[in-house]
Amino acid sequence: MTTELPVVLTARGFALLESLLQQHEAPFAGAAEIVRRKLDAAIVVFPTDVPANVVTLRSRVRFCVDGATADECTLIGGPDDAVYGPTLLLTSPRGLALIGAAAGQTVPAQLPDGSEEMIRIEAVPYQPEQRRSRLDLQVISGRDLPEPAKILSSARSRQPVAPFGGDDDPGPSAA
Question: 146 or 80: which carries more pLDDT confidence?
Answer without folding.
Answer: 80
